[in-house]
Amino acid sequence: MNTEITWSKIVKKLNKKKCRKLGKKFELDNWEHLKVSEKKELVNLLISFLAKNLKMKEVPTIRFEYSDECYGSYDPELNEILIDTETLEDSHQGLTVALTAAHELRHSFQRESVKKLDKLDPESILFIEDPIRRGIAEWLIGKKKEIFKLWKHNMEFENYIFDVEPETPYNPDIPLEEIILGEESEYEKQPIEADARKFEGEFISQFLVD
Question: Which keywords has UniProt assigned to this entry (predicted)?
Answer without folding.
Answer: Plasmid
